[in-house]
Amino acid sequence: MDLHVNNPQDSTTPVSIDSADYEQRLSSAVAAIRLSRLNSKGQPNLSIREAAKVFLISKSTLSDRYNGKLSRRDAHKNEQKLRPEAEKALVEWIKVM
């Protein structure tokens, strides 16, 4: 699924909102903030707001992840009824039906 966002360079740039792509962009944004040098106040030079704009992700979600909050999937991993391998096999079996 693609979403059109306001991009200063091109107002019709499609941005994927696939969860795997979004998670990758979140991880990249957190890494970019952590790798940016600290300013005189001890804060990263790349702000959460700036990183959210660059990586086209939610500022609040980025802030949560930067501060250690887990994704919904990871936070509820222990509550799953099936192991990921079993779930994947079941999905494939259903697709064949």
Characterise this structure.
GO terms for molecular function: DNA binding. This is HTH psq-type domain-containing protein. Residues 25-71 form the HTH psq-type domain. InterPro entries: Homeodomain-like_sf, HTH_Psq. The longest helix is centred in the N-terminal third of the chain and has 17 residues, at 19-35. The chain has 97 residues and is mostly helical. The chain has one domain. Helix 1 (19-35) packs across helix 3 (59-66) and helix 2 packs across helix 3. It starts with a strand and ends with a helix. The protein has helices at residues 19-35, 48-55, 59-66, 72-75, 84-96, and strands spanning 2-5, 13-16. It has a two-stranded antiparallel sheet.
Brief overview, please?
The chain is mainly α and 97 residues long. It contains 5 helices and 2 strands. The chain has helices at residues 19-35, 48-55, 59-66, 72-75, 84-96; strands spanning 2-5, 13-16.
Instruction: Output the radius of gyration.
Output: 17 Å
As laid out across the biggest beta sheet, the strand order is 1-2
Mean pLDDT across all amino acids: 82
User: Beta-strand level of the residues, as a percent range?
Assistant: 5-15%
Structural class: mainly alpha
Q: Uncertain spans, ≥5 residues at pLDDT below 50?
A: 1-13
Order of helices and strands: EEHHHHH
Distance between the termini: 25 Å
| Number of H/I helices | 5
Largest sheet: 2 strands, antiparallel
| Record field, number of beta strands | 2
Assign a percent range to the helix content: 40-55%
Shape: elongated
Into how many domains do the coordinates divide?
A: 1
GO molecular function: DNA binding
Protein name: HTH psq-type domain-containing protein
Organism: Neolentinus lepideus HHB14362 ss-1
Pfam family, one: HTH_psq
